[in-house]
Amino acid sequence: MDLAGPKVRTGPIEPGPRVVKVKPARDPSGIVTEPSRVWLAAGPHDAVATADRPDGAVVVPLADPEGKTLAVLQRGDEIELTDARGAHRRLEVEQVDGEGVLVQADKTVYWATGTALTTPHGPLEVGPLPPLEQSMRVHEGEEIVLARSLEPVPAVDTPPYRIGLTLAQAFADAAVGDRVSLDDGRIGARITAVSDDEITLEVTQAGPRGAKLKAEKGVNFPDTHLDIPALTDEDLAHIPFAARQADMVNMSFVRSAEDVAQLIDALEAEDAPDVDITLKIETVEAFRQLPRMLLEAMRWRDVGVMIARGDLAVEAGFARMAELQEEILWLCEAAHVPAIWATQVLESLAKTGLPSRAEITDAAMAQRAEAAMLNKGPYIDRAVTVLGDILGRMHGHASKKRDMLRRLESWSL
Questions:
Q1: Of 156, 150, 140, nearest to 170 (Cα)?
Q2: Would the pTM of this model clear 0.90, i.e. be above it?
């Protein structure tokens, strides 16, 4: 079980319109090769979206609580509507069952909450759709203001771009010149001004076409010592449950020996000596303090280290990542502490079914750790099989850092 630690994220952005765009597939000449398909069903969007529906169909809920009109629609019926941009559209019912109807169209339709539908059996109305996620596109040299207030902000097109920050302590600890990374490093910036309620940033990295500044995205302060404990009040409230139910507790954003001691004390108070502890190394500060944290952790029976390469790469810079993970492995080897190789291991394979060449090499490097962690995806079963094969082959060449110098048989494959 993960203890989430302090969440440093951007605040909310005002929601966009409740509209969903559904368009047909076209060939390079613009000819429709596959009509747009929408599944109309009565009920709230969340409930309808999780129900069984034809593959590839976009879900649109209807404000028809009793489903009376929906129930009498028949295959071949025509439905007419005027969409969100004022375009008149005619759709045909393709499939009917007890839960809803499948309609198709040869033109793009912008479905909106409240859109009126005309059917041969009576009127229908589109129910509440989820609002579109809003963002602000920022470019190098532009200004972002991180605000203490977490009131939703409008998505604007021109700087300065203003958005909330969930960590109040940052306004006391951040200093001019400190680096800040947002959204897993997609946006890099430096602090140009700090006040009690605002941190002003100048964007130093956003890609040639800019980058989207979104709500609820992670924010990293690699140069700033944030005077906050790794265990939040919420984490401490979760520890009694974890002590009873978990085999292992992962401590996120641990940064000091004092953080480790606090977790050990909390588990001792719950009389949970059999619960293992994993220290997730996610910040440069945690990397620097790792020897001291390991010494403190050794008073607990079973301890491990996770190389959480996502946040760590953002904080240290991608060019330093290989060096840092190498040194963490050496420290864990010296301390006789198992290490977990984590973050984006065979991620393309798990998500798309095809790995990249770099992923295969990265997975092979994971053999030097005691465990490799895979993330979820529709092809996760294939990723597990491939990873097992790679690690099995690499184990014949090296045992952690010791080369085996076995007889080479590559040519016999």
A1: 150
A2: no
